[in-house]
Amino acid sequence: MGDSWDLLSKALADPKQPDVRIQGLAALGLLGDNPRSLKMIETAMSDADLDVRTAAVLAAGQTEAAAIEPAMRKLLNDKEPQVAYTAALALWKLGDHSGGDILMAVVDGERKASANLLNGAEHDMDKTLHSPAELAKIGVTEGAGLLLGPFGFGITAYEYIKKNGGASARVHAIEALAQEKNERLRKEFVAALKDKDPGVRAAAAKALDSYHLPEVSAAIANLLYDVKRPVRLTAAAAYLISTHASPASPEPGARSKIAHGGRRTQR
Asked: Measuring CA to CA, which residue among 265, 267, 266, 262 is closest to residue 99?
């Protein structure tokens, strides 16, 4: 367990490579409302690199943890449009409409948006986002939704895997199969942990995190020493979930329902 946290902590603390910090945040987003991982994500929201801050808010949104929403709201006034927009979008998906004026500014483009249509608040970025040049900055990220990539890869790591033989069809197949849970699939995913393709190995580790069995945890732990960093980091998060050291982020099919009025129901 200590090795898993050590891997994640070192990734977040890497002083020279933002991509490494992004990869670490992607893995932390898998850990749900674990206080330790939430603190690490919140700290990364103050990173000097705008892509790291964006990854931090995406990871925070992936956890669906109410405790980190106040930190996410602070980023609505980030100096970079990409970060503010991503924060507004992530909060909206969680039922928090405090960044609605920013989203309205993006919709309106050069037209003046009325914050009163939403929550009466107007953030600093609302004015900036009426500029076509500023809108273009967030457009290149396609809503920043690709930054964390499938299975929590940082986009740079994912592109690397694709260029080096990553079989995306196999990864997507694992993602689909992981929605079911049975003995046959468990054996299939355990075997995939030894696949030559790093994307498949990481996907299999993520698919196995809900099998809380000693033999499964031990198999995932072997990937903590994988030659590929994205695989190691994904395995670290999967291992913590598998051993009950951390809750998982809610699965897509089991996300909290939005109550009337836009807020989440009590979990």
From this structure: 262
Residue 22: is it exposed, middle or buried by C-beta count within 10 angstroms (0-12/13-18/19+)?
buried
Q: Which domain holds residue 101?
A: 32-139
Q: How far apart are CA 130 and CA 102, in angstroms?
A: 10
Tell me, yes or no, if the pTM score tops 0.70: yes
Indicate the average pLDDT of the chain: 76
Q: How confident is the model at residue 117 (pLDDT cuts 50, 70, 90)?
A: very low
Please, are residues 260 and 53 in contact by the beta-carbon 8 Å criterion?
no
Cβ burial 52-86 (10 Å sphere, 16+ → b, else e): bbbbbbbbbbbbbbeebbebbbebbebebbbbbbb
CA pair distance 70, 185, nearest whole angstrom: 39
Structurally, the chain folds into a number of domains equal to 2
pLDDT in tens, 75-90: 999 988 888 888 888 8
Helix (H, G, I), strand (E, B) or coil at 118: coil
Same domain for 163 and 223, yes or no, is yes
Residue 230 sits in the same domain as residue 195? yes
Of 68 and 165, which is predicted with more confidence? 68
CATH number (domain holding residue 236): 1.25.10
215 contacts: CB under 8 Å, gap ≥ 6 = none
| Length of the chain, in residues | 267
As beta bridge partners, residue 258 has 264
Mean pLDDT value across residues 229-249:
85
CA distances to 19, 49, 139, 156 from 160, rounded to whole Å, are 11, 20, 22, 6
Measured CA distances, 108 to 95, 101, 123, 134, 226 (Å): 22, 10, 15, 13, 47
CATH of the domain at 123: 1.25.10.10
Whether 122 has a pLDDT exceeding 80, the answer reads no
